[in-house]
């Protein structure tokens, strides 16, 4: 009886065969903390009697949620974390690099076969690098900082096979929204989503990250893509000299479920308020008037996403009725977007282009909504109150749909502009 | 203990909105628990009350501020048909008892309820509702009084040991 990708990772890191359902104390290869959940994790570490962290080289710290500090308490939390990083000799990217999930990937902090944890639910993004990566709470993170290990219940896996080629202006975000609509907000709870098939094989890292990023929106513990040439090309430049483990699930691996999706006829998808799994074809909500458009976040804040939006925009301008906020996910993605002339294009078209950070996604820092307002966002959650007032509404979509809608002032099929 | 009744997919943004995450003291967080989504619960919840919910309680953000806000409000027990994974772990770690009860449909908001962990039942309106046993490794953390207490005395962990569920 074969094993899944996740079972293989746990077996390899534990030095014995480990199967889904088993609870193991597994070593952690990398731990990520940020400005929101980090302070609590550090306090817990100290409460647990922690003095020196298990290995400063395996810990990554950065600030992305409330940067630059938008309140005195936020500034104090960041100050607290800076002091801890200095004391413990932990590398702190501070607010210079961008959103944690993008930064961990592009700095080569996650690689095939590794176990990575972060005190943020979208840590599952690093499955795109072939790592087992999962979000944990602050107390679990305090434990990791002290011991370099954590209890895991090894998850069963759902095999998600994707075939077919995307139509123009339809892409990875539409795919993962449609999968979320199909599996449901709790449909993959305690399980891992193993993405495979020809569509995933030919998908660049940006799209794979978008898919793995939203695994949590189905309750999944992880999303993961079997590492291949795309993974290697991405990591070789970012982690020179590192051995990149060969990893593939066995053909006779046991899955909790197998699902197949064909993207040939997939149309742009939109998640309507207030659930991520409330997903419809764009034409069902086309014409809905919008007040704000956000293009960014760890889900869709990469150069490829901005290129997709810019292709739809062309030489037009955004509607005066819409506030358009563009936030690259990292410094690297910002520079790529800038050098390609896209930042200039967005600014000319009427957008605000902000420095890399989480932005309006979690309703903490800026770009909040007033009661009755409607936001169209390329981020990952449309929960009530997520981007400000609990009486506002958030729709989720792809960068192409966001750009098309920002031009017209209402939700619009990007294939029709 | 009185029941506060919730539906499916109650996310952690609803339990504690993002703008309050600079706080970490349970009592201060409790002032904003369910702010904007269930203000009646925020105003009326008493120590010892229980939250009863449908499927996938605590989905979304990993923010541990969510169980801390509930703790600050005096909620020690959350009963749901199912829990989101991160919330479940965070609840156990911080000292909230997350109990799985497969059908909470008959439970009524405002009515009294008692929980008997030994017998594995929740009783309300003279009806017994079976509760799933807590997994053994989670029970060990609960018995210790949360993960901090569990980890305090430990100098190191024994790697790669495991147990069947």
Automatic annotation (TrEMBL), chain A:
PROSITE patterns: ACONITASE_2 (PS01244). Keywords: 4Fe-4S, Amino-acid biosynthesis, Branched-chain amino acid biosynthesis, Iron, Iron-sulfur, Leucine biosynthesis, Lyase, Metal-binding. One of its GO terms (biological process) is L-leucine biosynthetic process. [4Fe-4S] cluster binds at residues 298, 358, 361. One of its GO terms (molecular function) is 4 iron, 4 sulfur cluster binding. Catalyzes the isomerization between 2-isopropylmalate and 3-isopropylmalate, via the formation of 2-isopropylmaleate. Heterodimer of LeuC and LeuD. Belongs to the aconitase/IPM isomerase family. LeuC type 2 subfamily. This is 3-isopropylmalate dehydratase large subunit. It comes from Methanofollis formosanus.
From TrEMBL, chain B:
It comes from Methanofollis formosanus. GO terms for biological process: L-leucine biosynthetic process. The keyword Amino-acid biosynthesis applies. Heterodimer of LeuC and LeuD. Keywords: Amino-acid biosynthesis, Branched-chain amino acid biosynthesis, Leucine biosynthesis, Lyase. Its EC number is 4.2.1.33. Pathway: Amino-acid biosynthesis; L-leucine biosynthesis; L-leucine from 3-methyl-2-oxobutanoate: step 2/4. It catalyses: (2R,3S)-3-isopropylmalate = (2S)-2-isopropylmalate. HAMAP family: LeuD_type2. Residues 47-101 form the Aconitase A/isopropylmalate dehydratase small subunit swivel domain. It is an enzyme of class 4 (lyase). GO terms for molecular function: 3-isopropylmalate dehydratase activity. InterPro entries: Aconitase/3IPM_dehydase_swvl, AconitaseA/IPMdHydase_ssu_swvl, IPMI_Swivel, LeuD, LeuD_type2/HacB/DmdB. Belongs to the LeuD family. LeuD type 2 subfamily. Catalyzes the isomerization between 2-isopropylmalate and 3-isopropylmalate, via the formation of 2-isopropylmaleate. Pfam families: Aconitase_C. Signal peptide: none annotated. The lineage of its organism: Archaea, Methanobacteriati, Methanobacteriota, Stenosarchaea group, Methanomicrobia. This is 3-isopropylmalate dehydratase small subunit.
């Amino acid at each position: 009886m074969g094993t899944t990708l996740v079972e293989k990772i746990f077996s390899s890191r534990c030095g014995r065969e480990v199967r889904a359902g088993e609870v193991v104390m597994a070593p952690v290869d990398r731990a990520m903390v940020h400005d929101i959940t980090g302070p609590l994790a550090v306090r817990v570490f100290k409460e647990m009697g922690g003095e020196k962290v298990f290995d400063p080289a395996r810990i990554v710290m950065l600030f992305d949620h409330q940067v630059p500090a938008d309140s005195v308490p936020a500034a104090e939390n960041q100050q607290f974390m800076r002091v801890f990083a200095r004391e413990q000799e932990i590398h702190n990217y501070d607010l210079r690099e961008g959103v944690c999930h993008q930064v961990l990937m592009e700095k080569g902090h996650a690689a095939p076969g590794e176990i990575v944890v972060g005190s943020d639910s979208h840590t599952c993004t690093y499955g795109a690098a072939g790592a087992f990566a999962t979000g944990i709470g602050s107390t679990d993170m305090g434990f990791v900082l002290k011991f370099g290990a954590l209890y895991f219940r090894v998850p069963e896996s759902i095999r998600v096979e994707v075939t077919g080629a995307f139509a123009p202006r339809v892409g990875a975000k539409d795919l993962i929204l449609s999968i979320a609509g199909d599996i449901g907000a709790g449909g993959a709870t305690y399980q891992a989503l193993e993405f495979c098939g020809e569509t995933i094989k030919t998908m660049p890292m940006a799209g794979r990250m978008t898919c793995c990023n939203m695994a949590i929106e189905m309750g999944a513990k992880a999303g993961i893509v079997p590492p291949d040439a795309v993974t290697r090309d991405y990591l070789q430049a970012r982690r020179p000299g590192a051995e990149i483990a060969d990893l593939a699930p066995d053909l006779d691996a046991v899955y909790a479920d197998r699902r197949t999706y064909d993207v040939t006829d997939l149309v742009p998808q939109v998640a309507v308020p207030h659930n991520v799994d409330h997903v419809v074809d764009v034409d069902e909500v086309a014409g809905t008037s919008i007040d704000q458009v956000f293009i960014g976040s760890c889900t869709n804040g990469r150069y490829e996403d901005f290129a997709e939006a810019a292709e739809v925009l062309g030489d037009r301008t955004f509607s005066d009725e819409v506030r358009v906020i563009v936030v690259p996910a990292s410094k690297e993605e910002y520079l790529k977007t800038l050098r390609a002339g896209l930042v200039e294009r967005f600014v000319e078209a009427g957008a605000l282009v902000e420095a890399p950070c989480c932005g309006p996604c979690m309703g903490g820092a800026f770009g909040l909504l007033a009661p009755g307002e409607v936001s169209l966002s390329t981020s990952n959650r449309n929960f009530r109150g997520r981007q400000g007032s609990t009486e506002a509404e958030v729709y989720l979509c792809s960068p192409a749909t966001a750009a098309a809608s920002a031009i017209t002032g209402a939700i619009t099929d990007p294939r029709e502009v | 203990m009185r029941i506060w009744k919730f539906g499916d997919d109650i996310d952690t943004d609803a339990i504690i909105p993002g703008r309050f995450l600079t706080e970490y003291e349970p009592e201060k967080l409790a002032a904003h628990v369910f702010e904007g989504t269930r203000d009646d619960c925020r105003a009326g919840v008493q120590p010892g009350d229980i939250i009863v919910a449908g499927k996938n309680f605590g989905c979304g953000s990993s923010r541990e501020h969510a169980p801390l806000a509930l703790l600050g409000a005096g909620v020690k027990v959350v009963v749901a048909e199912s829990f989101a994974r991160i919330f479940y772990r965070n609840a156990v770690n911080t000292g909230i008892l997350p109990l799985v009860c497969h059908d909470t449909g008959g439970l009524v908001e405002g009515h009294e309820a008692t929980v008997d962990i030994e017998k594995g039942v929740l009783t309300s309106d003279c009806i017994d509702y079976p509760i799933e046993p807590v997994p053994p490794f989670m029970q060990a953390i609960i018995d210790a009084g949360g993960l901090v207490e569990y980890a305090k005395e430990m100098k190191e962990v024994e790697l790669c040991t495991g147990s069947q569920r």
